[in-house]
Amino acid sequence: QITEALLKERDKQAKWNGIPLLLQKLYEHSHPNSDFSQCQSILKEISPLLSMEAMAFVTEDRKVAQESTFPNTYTFDLFGGVDLLVEILMRPTLITQKKKQKISDDLIKDCLSILYNTCICTEGVTRRLAERNDFVLFLFTLMTNKKTFLQTATLIEDILGVKKEMIQLDDIPNLASLVSSFDQQQLANFCRILAVTISELDTGSDDKHTLLAKNAQQKKNLGPSRAEINQATLLNIPGFIERLCKLATRKVSETTGTSSFLQELEEWYTWLDNALVLDALMRVANEEAEQSSTESSDESGLANTSTRTQLPQSMKIMHEIMYKLEVLYVLCVLLMGRQRNQVHKMIAEFKLIPGLNNLFDKLIWRKHSASALVLHGHNQNCDCSPDITLKIQFLRLLQSFSDHHENKYLLLNSQELNELSAISHKANIPEVDAVVNTDRSLVCDGKRGLLTRLLQVMKKEPAESSFRFWQARAVESFLRGTTSYADQMFLLKRGLLEHILYCIVDSECKSRDVLQSYFDLLGELMKFNIDAFKRFNKYINTDEKFQIFLNQINSSLVDSNMLVRCITLSLDRFENQSDAKVAEVLSECRLLSYMSQMSMRMSFLFRLINIIHVQTLTQENVSCLNTSLVILMLARRKEKLPFYLRTLQQMEYTEKYPGFILNNFHSLLRFWQQHYLNKDKDSTCLENSSCISFTYWKETVSILLSPDRTSPCAIVSYIDEAYMDIDRDFSEE
């Protein structure tokens, strides 16, 4: 509506670089009946003005970048450029079938890359586009065209990243045929987009949310979440999981070239967080290689060729790593979702595990890869480089794959499975059903299974490496569930116990996360296993070493309470056995002797109850409550419950603060009932890990919470009337 003359006049002063005039021309040439032929040449003029700014933005530090430094994209948006391009792109969808307009691929490409550049540089544009649901769903339809796939995917990823509401994959027109039209490369990039649509929005800090808040949230959300619905949608696409497994396990076709490519790519990392950018680079690199091979073959040409053709090879590996990252992430999320069993079945059938096993040395844990790079001051989830992220993603996949699932035995090869059977026969115990039922055609092949390979790299890992946490979690999830003597012995024979103790005691590990994962693993490895306690005593063979071990346990009970629980349960079982070997270990083992002292058990119980409160309970520290319950259930079996409660009361008086432990414990147990007696709650975990029936857990809690002040097993009998503070209700705040 502004006259051309006025725009021209203001242009120089305002430093608009002629953008408003170009937009005016574009508007005139894009009316409903135009053939768009002129549009492209106009866009070709606008495009370089914006792409220069986008490059500057990407290469500079993004935080420093302010709107003021990107006047062209700002002007472009100010004069309605963004809305105009959206309108041009979507024009064909508005016109009736008869006179369908075709926009050329090049025009679509130009529109998309200009939109992407504007999104990068100008605040708020991405958010505005994200609010237009029709446009977001329309973008997916553009992905069917190979020529515009990269630009479309990059833009969609940016938009979904800021979208407040998660999109429903069901709403995408012809999703199944869209996915089946992708080649493997496109499918891998599509996984990057899918990641946003299948992950719950706040899973990152899952352990940190209080259980009160979570329970309140669950009451509100009755149906499945959008992410869960999207997961189900994906599983219903024919052949989807099979193709992901193929992608995850395919080999980098050629042998690896140069080993120095990590350094070559170091400077790219700043903005190579995107496989799409890599695709573009790959094209350039491949074209360069083709060019250089057609150049004259004199010496300079030859020298040129070698340096030029090395890069594409190293990029191919980087490329493959980035693809696998996206794919493993999607598989991992699906393995943890509601359809877990269905996904498990498919993943086993399509041989994901043996496939990853074959890639382990060459790609996942390559010699010269960044595993030696210790992450300075970064947190565990920092993805400094694709190499590091791939390892963490791989370990997370192993963890969710073997956690409480029979398929975990696919992580072994046939010989290793035979070894498990032999261990059971030798110990004269029945074989685990899951081992007998494992389909041998689906297990790992080669000299070693995936679990054994993992143990090998775990032992070589530098002390302060951030992978230790994930490695320990992956091995621990293999042991979780009902305790299996054969599984424990399999790992004990491979020196795992000594390795863990070396890390806890000799290298005096300081990282809280790593310590917690090592304590949990140690607990699973030693539980009820007399041989493990014998080995422990052999390794921790001086009072000094034992003291360091105790200091590590006591430094944070939230981290070590699962180990305390394991020792308490094991001690109880050993004391009830009349076996000479057991009796010998009981008398010699420092750890068991220490825990058999009543005063030590009471000290643990007192501290476990003291460090948690209903308002601060999370997924991570609720185990302290269950460990304190285990100590009291074992006391109840021996009819010592009143003695324990009386001792807690005396300890309160010694601390000059009557009632503070028992009132707190009373509230915690009421919360326990609310939390675990919920119909959706899975109580088998508590049963499996303790070998105490859930009925006994429930009974013990009821007895402790009895309101009868004359009952010797009721908490209230041990709180003086004056200090009673148990009737408050939990608020969900």
UniProtKB/TrEMBL annotation:
One of its GO terms (cellular component) is Cul4A-RING E3 ubiquitin ligase complex. Pfam families: DUF3689. One of its GO terms (biological process) is ubiquitin-dependent protein catabolic process. Keywords: Receptor. One of its GO terms (molecular function) is phosphatase binding. Residues 288-308 are annotated as: Disordered. This is Short transient receptor potential channel 4-associated protein. It comes from Chaetura pelagica (Chimney swift).
